[in-house]
Design a protein that fits this description.
The protein has 240 residues and is of the alpha/beta class. 41% of the residues lie in helices and 17% in strands. A 7-stranded mixed sheet has the order 3-2-1-4-6-5-7, sandwiched between helices. Helix 5 packs parallel to helix 8. It starts with 11 loop residues before the first strand and ends with a helix.
């Protein structure tokens, strides 16, 4: 249904990772298989991993020409995304998590939506994955549900599932946003603040089978609420 060779569009697939050696290599092989002979630029941003990722990466025989960007220390997913976007060769950027919960096939859905929507709204467009059925722990689903409800009510950002890593946008539009920690959680609101448009695309989600999640209730929910207020003040400041 989603035939990549009909897309004829160049993009960079950015994969931020932190201690994801158990899952990233199977994901890379899945990307090779999914996109076959038309592999996008793949850029892994290793955010200070302390596992065996780098050692295995040097030995792994991957067909794809993969670029690697590394932080010496862990600086957070948001900083990893920024490093990846800056180093990307293409203007169109897709983001996918390295834990394997985002099927690479779903990136095609975002690209097809982009091709359709960019014809009528080419400025500051962001395509967001909206997980049909979230395959996560109860705590993660509960905290995200509450945070999503509060965020949508306060920011009116038109995004159904901002915690979904799958995103697609233009490099230049992303770089217009002044960087701050955890801004990746509020990209739809920040794009709208700059006159952008948000499109939600239903995507599949898979259970995490390898590695450990970096998030818990405290570092996801309470930190998210504090950041939500920061973004609200930022938007109000720009409006007024």
């Amino acid at each position: 249904m989603y035939i990549y060779h009909h897309m004829k569009i160049k993009f960079t697939l950015i994969i931020p990772i932190f201690n994801e050696a158990e899952s990233i290599f199977s994901l890379l092989k899945e990307i090779e298989s999914e996109f076959k002979g038309m592999i996008p630029e793949v850029l892994i941003v290793d955010d200070g991993s302390k596992d065996y990722f780098l050692e295995k990466f040097k030995k792994e025989k991957l067909k794809t020409n993969i670029k690697l960007c590394r932080h010496k220390t862990n600086m957070g997913k948001c900083k990893a995304m920024l490093s990846g976007v800056k180093k990307a060769s293409n203007q169109l950027i897709a983001i996918i998590d390295g834990d394997g919960q985002n099927p690479p096939s779903e990136v095609k859905k975002l690209i097809l939506s982009w091709k359709k929507e960019s014809k009528v709204s080419s400025q500051n467009l962001i395509i967001c994955g909206n997980r049909i059925k979230r395959e996560d722990t109860y705590i993660k689903r509960f905290s995200s549900k509450i945070a999503n409800s509060l965020r949508k009510k306060i920011l009116n950002d038109e995004c159904n599932d901002t915690a979904c890593a799958l995103k697609l946008f233009k490099k230049k539009d992303y770089l217009k946003i002044t960087y701050f920690k955890n801004m990746h959680r509020f990209l739809p609101a920040l794009f709208i603040m700059n006159g952008g448009k948000v499109i939600n695309v239903p995507v599949l989600d898979r259970p995490r089978t390898k590695g450990k999640s970096k998030y818990n209730f405290n570092n996801r929910f309470w930190v998210g609420i504090i950041d939500l207020l920061k973004v609200w003040f930022l938007i109000k400041k720009k409006e007024g």
